[in-house]
Amino acid sequence: MDALFLLSSHLKNGKIGLYELEMDKIRYFAFSDVHGCYQELIDALDNAGYDIDNPHHKLLFLGDAFDKNKDDYHMYVFLRDNIRNHKLIWIMGNHDYYLLNVLRKKQINKSCSNTVKNIALGLNKELKDYDGYIDALLKDGLYKILSEDTRYYFETEKYVFTHAFIPYDKKNNRYDSNWREADEKRWNTCLNNLINFRLAIKYHLLVPGKTLVLGHIGAYYGNITKYHPDLEIDGEEFKALGDKIKRKPKENIRYFQTFYGEGVIGLDARSFDTGLVNVFAFEEEEINGQ
Known about the structure:
CATH superfamily: Metallo-dependent phosphatases
CATH class: Alpha Beta
Strand order of the largest sheet: 10-11-9-8-7-13
Number of domains: 1
Helix content: 25-40%
């Protein structure tokens, strides 16, 4: 079918911006695991060509917004406002799930205590205790965003996006064609399993005919396979090298750049250590996503 084009204009800084894109397509800007690195994200999106005023640009976040003591408040406001303006798709990450449970149970745990405090004090500097912090986040709608506005995956004609991995047949290390119908328990098991990516590569547990795009650990694990193809991906030497690279991330920055493999792309740049945020931009039609 011949492409149909839509020309639209928006006033920005006193200038008219003209945007041309196929009517049935959106340009997505995918990123992951920002962990409060707000300014690094804004800079990366700007470098990738993202224009918040372009009606055909949309953000695709693969999860893990907070929990590393960076700029949690401004990151939250950025994600919140883009969700409310229908400019952002948020895929659940393991740290997002931890925070969801904190808000659901109204109890602080160690991994989220600073995040809750940082966001709450950004909303209201007069707050004095954790009960007040949690109430402030609930009132501002963070629980609703995490419980109702996130999803486990997003799918287009060519790609499947998720945080760490898709559900698979763990007993036999096989691809499960029914992964889209997996329940919350199975998805949550996938959110924080560091071995999933390595098993996916070893046993080729990828989505047939599509490219799986991952956050979590996908970039540096993937790049280890690229630069050290002789290492067994589920062996101890591979794991030891990964640990060594993480200890000196800025000296090993090539391992944290976007990994492009056969049937898989890894985005997590370990931004809180490297200052790098990887952005994958593409134009596609949305199919579905839970």
